[in-house]
Amino acid sequence: MGNLKIGVVGFGTFGQFLAKRMIKQGHTLRATSRSDYSQLSLQLGIQFFSDVTALLQADNDVILICTSILSFSQVMESMPLARLNRSTTLFVDVLSVKEHPRHLLLSVLAEESDILCTHPMFGPVSGKDGWKDLTFMYDKVRIRDEAICSSFLHIFETEGCKMLHMSCEEHDKFAAKSQFITHTIGRTLAEMDIKSTPIDTKGFQTLVQLKDTTIRDSFDLYSGLFLHNRFARQELENLEHALHKVKEMLVERTTEEQGIEKAER
Fold this sequence. Notes:
Shape: elongated
Protein name: Prephenate/arogenate dehydrogenase domain-containing protein
CATH architecture of the largest domain: 3-Layer(aba) Sandwich
GO molecular function, one term: prephenate dehydrogenase (NAD+) activity
Pfam families: PDH_N, TYRAAT1_C
Radius of gyration: 23 Å
InterPro entries: 6-PGluconate_DH-like_C_sf, NAD(P)-bd_dom_sf, PDH_N, Prephen_DH, TYRAAT1/2, TYRAAT2_C
Keywords: Oxidoreductase
């Protein structure tokens, strides 16, 4: 298939991060966003449309949705999809949750549109020096045009990503146990206002780093990981239960120690 014509919807930090690498590979990029990124797009060699309808009417092989989790529904449902220039367009999302976009794309897109749900497990910080060995998860939800889909996946294969084919449901189960819990611990440490001390252990330095990394992401992203992953609530309850259990064990040990001290007197 070779070079693709890719229309990016949502040209914030993450959309720009992906687009820069795609441009380097020789793909043709167009973009649209709520904010005006026309100047930046000009510098990057990307055509910017202030109106999503104009973007849809351009001849795109792929429409890449890079909105936030919380705005995804509103963006997709308000998109004038009847104005698509071609019926066989591949729609790709890059959200950190996967069942939510899968259900929505299946419900709003015409049968002729292909759907690829993906989650690049990296971002502008972790991927700043390249994407080699970083995980790219994808689920071929509905693919008729294998050539376009393969060409899109090839963007990440070429960069050396670890390609992981996985169902959206399986992804969300894993993500609730890993990504959501990581963010929850980081947010909890931020609430405790933990800071470096003169006697930090390596373990504590890791916790401070986790807190700092987590709070760089918006609370919208964090709440999206909770609201739109049906497995997240259970993991939050598991965390609460585990903390309660650990506290119980400490109280029990304290009681035992006090009993021994009394007996020794």
